[in-house]
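Q: How would the structure tokens look for this protein?
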Amino acid sequence: MCDYYSPHLTTKRCRRVADRADVNSVEIAYTPTDHSWFNRIEAQFTALRYLALDSTDQPGHKARGAAGFAATSADETSTPVTSAYARW
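A: Here is the predicted structure in token form.
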């Protein structure tokens, strides 16, 4: 899935991209850049990104183990980190 951001090569602008997609039986789906808020999958990726990156600031493996497997919010409640980002 690609948006129409100008640096992204499209099958219309670059024959190499079109040929590679054809050889690998890949259909490239484009989304509009000016309406990205319509793209519901972006919210899922945003929540996943924050969950993955915000839970990696422990100084080492022992501290990470002590913090528990599930990442929690800054106020140390049992609320997952993603709850702040995955509101619909």
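The two ends are 22 Å apart (CA to CA).

The longest helix spans residues 41-54.

Upvote if useful.
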